[in-house]
Amino acid sequence: MSPRGDIEAAAQNRNTPWWVSAGVVAAVIAGVIARFVPRGELWLDEALSANIAELGPAGAVDALRRDGHPPLFYWLLDAWSSLVGDSPWALRSLSGLIGVATLPLMWLAGRRLVERQLVDPQSADSVDRTRQTATAAVVITALLPFTVRYSSETRMYALVMLLVVIGYLLLDAQLRTPRWWTVAALAVTASALLWSHYWAIWLLGALGAGALVLAWRAHRSGNLHQRTAALGVAGALVIAGLSFLPWLPTLLYQGANTGTPWGDTVRPATLAVLGMIYLAGGAVAEPQLVAYLFAGLLVLGLLGTTNNRGRIELGLRVTPNAKPEAVLVVVTMAIAWAAAFASRSAFAARYLAVLVPIVVLIAALGLSAIRNDRWRRVVAVVLLAGFSVGIVAEIARERTQAGDIADAVVAAAAESSEPPFLVICPDQNGPSIERALRSRGATGTVAIVTYPALGDPRFVDWVDYAARNAAAEPASIAARALKQAAGRTVLYAYTGNYRTLEGQCEATLQALATVRGAPAVLVPPNERNEDEPAIELLRFDPQ
User: Fold this and answer.
1) Are residues 505 and 444 in the same domain?
2) What 3-state class would DSSP assign to 266?
3) Of 396, 411, 445, which residue sits at a domain end?
4) Does 367 lie in the same domain as 308?
5) 505 lies in which domain range?
6) φ, ψ at 17 (rounded to 5°)
7) How far is residue 68's CA from residue 52's CA, in Å, rounded to a whole number?
């Protein structure tokens, strides 16, 4: 065994009882399993992803002009579904596997974060700190409710997190030893990020600015090695940007015409607070409480150390620290908020996927800054216990009523001599309900249209969405729907007071009732839904 191996083994034997190692393994296994627990029907965003992906590469590009995302994840999902099928579990398993693949890379990233700053990497204390940070990075990533959720959802956010970790490792390798292949790999990774989610623009912009500052400082100090490394990073980002130019016209079109009509621009403090809460598990009390503990670990990762008596001290010159990582997070969020404010765009916590791996690394370093074994383990147990409650709540959470609606529609169709005519209001309820009906083999026997266009329920056209909704006339649309129904039973699935459609679904209901009479309630609204608003299904019999 090498000297380093002897030191690491000694440190592990001294500081890690078997029950701690067993707990770490159990926590990671639990996090992996949680990523694959079935979660019912696909909700709006997931159903849209699946519907766009199944159009194929060219069709997805065309559909995304009216949606608002770059296409890489949709291409991958199309290929994945051709291999494993299109059930909700099969589609979500792609994100699950990506999330699992992120875990060992987080372990490497935790090691690199500490190793690059150690004066004596061979000492037992240094090996101990490195191992503890790496282990904390894996366990936090495994059980963080944010990572569990988006590793179990048919969206691009698990892919984004994986690419960020890969980019972090490549960046570290380039800054240590500049090589052409590292620059090339970093360029490919940055390009994949740009083609996955637009918030990558803000992250890579902040990273590029940092690389140029580092190159300038290295030039001033005469450090040729560091200047070469930093310019290599900047060059990789330029190459990634050039690779994104073919998509730029679509991005500009989306920016001018789609936007985020479902939300409001938030203040910087709101962005930070909401981000921290949703990282820990969202609207659940226990995760919200440990979010404050998690924030404390971030402070320790940036400023914390332990003195000779084992007491934690804060200072600006502690080593190791996560100052570059913290600066990257803050600058990225500042750029993102400024862009959102300028374009009047909304914020959603899921966008923070571009920063979550870096935030986790900072927290992992903060946890390892607690050098007293007993207190470090107590803090870890409390943190992970809170996260576990968030995961249980996430698994039990009802994402959509689409399954209940589909079951009721199928039952109504079985009772009718003619297939019923399903009207969905608004169109944002359409994709999830259509996917649920499709999984039950009912889309061929039930005519489905969505308000206000009475069009294809598989998609939502976000182009000029608010303006088109404002111009809609509920009474006229209801009359058109009844004409298309041609005397058949009309089923009306609606959600009231949808943003940009305030009062319109209710007015459509009133117009239908004026002609067909009072409806029967087939499915009452379930207010427990968190991803989609409650949906009510009503039945209007023919006169």
Assistant:
1) yes
2) coil
3) 396
4) yes
5) 402-540
6) -60, 160
7) 12
Q: Write out the two tokens for 279.
A: 């990282």
- Tell me, yes or no, whether 71 and 140 share the same domain: yes
Give me the amino acid identity at 1: M
Structure-model confidence comparison of residues 442 and 431, the more confident one? 431
Residue 40 in tokens: 């019912």
Q: Is the peptide bond before 426 cis (omega within 30 degrees of 0)?
A: yes
Q: Name 377's Cβ contacts closer than 8 Å, sequence gap at least 6.
A: 20
Other C-beta atoms within 10 Å of 293: how many? 15
pLDDT by residue (tens digit) across 209-231? 999 999 999 999 999 999 999 99
Q: At what angle do helices 124-143 and 88-115 cross, to 10 degrees?
A: 160
The answer to pTM > 0.85 is yes
Chain CA centroid to CA 361, Å: 18
Give tens-digit pLDDT for 127-150. Answer: 889 999 999 999 999 999 999 999
Say yes or no: 85 and 26 in one domain. Answer: yes
Counting Cα atoms < 13 Å in the Cβ hemisphere of 271 gives 22
Q: Do 423 and 384 sit in the same domain of this protein?
A: no
Q: Is the link from the previous residue into 249 a cis peptide, with omega within 30 of 0? A: no
Rounded to whole angstroms, the Cα distance separating 492 from 429 reads 11
Q: What is the distance between the alpha carbons of residues 496 and 491, in angstroms, rounded to a whole number?
A: 16
pLDDT tens digit string along 386-426?
A: 999 999 988 888 889 999 999 999 999 998 888 899 999 99
Give the residue from 374, 396, 418 where a domain finishes.
396
User: 117-138 burial string, b = 16+ CB within 10 Å, else e?
Assistant: bbeeeeeeebbbbbbbbbbbbb
Q: How many C-beta atoms surround the C-beta of residue 297 within 10 A?
A: 26
Cβ atoms 85, 79 nearer than 8 A: no
The radius of gyration of the chain from alpha carbons, rounded to an integer in Å, stands at: 26
Cα torsion through 278, 283, 284, 285, rounded to 10:
100
| Number of domain units in the chain | 2
Using CA atoms, how far apart are residues 497 and 91, in angstroms rounded to an integer? 31
